[in-house]
What does this fold into?
Amino acid sequence: MGGALENDLMVRVARGEEVERTPIWLFRQAGRHLPEYEAYKKETGCNFLQLLEKPEHVAECTMQPIRRYNLDAAILFSDILVVAEALGIDVEMPGGKGILVPKPLTGPEDFKARIPKSINVDEKLSHVIASVKLIKKELNGKVPLIGFSAAPWTLMYYMVGGSSKKNQEEGERWLKEHPEESQELLDILTTVVVDYTSAQIDAGADMMQIFEAMGEFISKESFYKFAMPCMQSIQKQLRERHPEVPLLVFPRGATYSLVDLQQAGYDVVTMDTQTPRKSTRDALAEAAAAAAPPNLRKGPSGLQGNFDVKLIKGGEGTKENVRAEAERMLKELGAQHLIANLGEGLTGKEDPELVACL
It folds into this structure.
């Protein structure tokens, strides 16, 4: 875990402690909205996926927003599909089309032929673990480092569908038509995610964020049958291995599950842009009063989110609107037990001046 943190606001909120100021960090705070990131890509001749291969590139990109903005945490500069890559799935990033899996799994036989039952993450993802160690050294205790992984359903969604923009129904189809093989794949992914996130913590990550980024593309019934048990298992195993490390979760598009994720023991649960603020806060408090969750606070989980990213878009947002919405968010959620963040990740079209204002 390294030495003491100069700024431990994020960790204290996640543990349920009172803080002197609401901390803030932003989903995708590193990367394409920053001029210095685009300049670094040009200087190195690397695209996004190539940058991820070398720890010195990862550390530089992680540190860029920490140098520019007054942020309360750094997050590992990485991608949600590195786990899929470690299992032998090819990942590409053709310009303007997002991340793609060019050869998704075509069916149960293809899955059994291509996906190993287990992997050694220290070997397959050694470059990521080395990156975490280097970032911790460069941060030198300034702010905590958040490690992260995609959740198993999100990984499966890409592995069988290939894209966030096409074949969006393919994952759900697998769950319906191949339930046993789907469960087998999700079990493999759960084990890898636990080992991978645990390795990040061993390398120095101070907090761990689990992203269920594709919650929008799974039915509520399937979410509770397939996705939720994976996230419960991840929480349980990580808490056993690392009892003091805060665990954050973001089921984007499936925030109906926030109370259940609190009760599963996640320390901070995240609202997307559509999540109602006050009723969510009230529901978490009510559930925790009825049965204390196994989180670090043993009470209501902290909340994270859910500023609308559109308000910091270049050419559209204004500093006045940013300030007004930030004040409204604090009024509706309260300044305590809150990590200010966005309701979705930065898209690359944001104005750094508006981001700084937020």
Notes: Residues 179-202 form the longest helix (24 residues). The two ends are 29 Å apart (CA to CA). DSSP finds 16 helices and seven strands in the chain.
